[in-house]
Amino acid sequence: MRDRSSKSSYHTVDVVLVTAMGNELAILFTRSTSDRERWSLPWKAAQGAETLDATATRIAQDVLGEPPTWIEQISAFADGKRHPGNADISVAFVGLVPHETASPRPGNTWFPVGDLPPLSPRQRSMVEGSMRIIQARLDQAPIAFRLLPPTFTLGELQQLYELLLSKRLHKASFRRALQAAWLVEPTDEWRSEGRGRPAQLYRYAPKKRRRSHRGVRFDLLHP
Amino acid sequence: MRDRSSKSSYHTVDVVLVTAMGNELAILFTRSTSDRERWSLPWKAAQGAETLDATATRIAQDVLGEPPTWIEQISAFADGKRHPGNADISVAFVGLVPHETASPRPGNTWFPVGDLPPLSPRQRSMVEGSMRIIQARLDQAPIAFRLLPPTFTLGELQQLYELLLSKRLHKASFRRALQAAWLVEPTDEWRSEGRGRPAQLYRYAPKKRRRSHRGVRFDLLHP
DNA sequence: TCAAAAGTGTTTGTTATACACCCATGA
DNA sequence: TCATGGGTGTATAACAAACACTTTTGA
Predict the structure, then answer these.
(1) Total-model pTM
(2) Long-range contacts of A109-115, Cβ-Cβ distance < 8 Å, separation of 24 or more
């Protein structure tokens, strides 16, 4: 049997909460308890009894008042890089939140990804990891809907996809693909944005689960 | 400042080494040091100074004699599930190895995924996680080549893809896609398998990096 | 009545899939 | 010479992208 005390370490759970704010993604930061001038990702020491996912959800709930609509573990970090809690190991999570329904508790603020505050090296790696995961999951599951309120216009949905993919999309093609996938259904509400024809509101309601039987994907970037 | 000793825990790095053995994937197991009748995934207590990736690579090298051709962190596990080393947290990695060039050290054996030995609950989760990651990465990077020796026939490559995807592929279409992706180049060697025309040997040599500008992927399974 | 945004039918070009066939070798 | 697996040209089907157009509102 090994001697546990000689190999012990201190570990934390850190959460990267992401939302779509206007025309940019934004990440939630907390004022550091030790240095009120600094900001950090929300984090806590892990409880032995709790699963990591539960801890991450609890941390998110503490700063947002409600749990994220989607959460996933990014990775464990244990390089020598500095961490605000001086943790030996930090397990990082990424969570998505619709901007409309999320109201950060006092001391927490959204920062656009293009203009983040100074950050400990390890938490900077976490932010980068979260962006990579979002990009990757976008191609594997319809996580974009996790950033939208329960009802939304197709224009909003397309804008969000354009933001996440960083490229313009063709309106007609976008709607055709959406229709073929049976992911949304129209409500009987309409929203007028001031100028132009009012848009019908839709809700996320995935019906069929037909995975397109696509061929082998060789058209990939070499890592 | 927090009291580190009151929140300390013991953590390990575990490695799921995967190879393609005949017509099935196989995973490397080590005879348990305490109970010689039991098998477990290779694992070690993490060293504070080393990065997690380095530890995982070292563990793999210890049981295989050489590092894996590809390695990636699966996840950190900290649920209540049992672990052979009684770790509070285990960080799991998945590694790929070509079967032809890997020779496990004594006390280590490949088990086909369809016929694994009894396993601690946490390590079972790791095996499941490794399969999920391989399946997912297959659609994101050409990791199949990491399971092949430096040169191989297109028949072997196709068989491997059929194994990984669990479905038959059309020969001509497979080769057309492969050619369009500029991932392999022919060597001037040929291999005769006894029956039928000898096959030309190819090597993995990705040239272009043209990522196909595919549209929005809505055709996804809902998680 | 014009600008602006929503929403839709049809065409075009690209790509995956399949069919059909030839080639080379061992038994 | 036949069965077996390697290898390739050509047709067909599926799909993404684009074009062109109508609809509905506020100014």
Answers:
(1) 0.90
(2) A109/A28, A109/A29, A109/A39, A110/A19, A110/A21, A110/A26, A110/A27, A110/A28, A110/A29, A111/A26, A111/A27, A111/A28, A111/A29, A111/A39, A112/A21, A112/A24, A112/A25, A112/A26, A113/A24, A113/A25, A113/A26, A113/A27, A114/A24
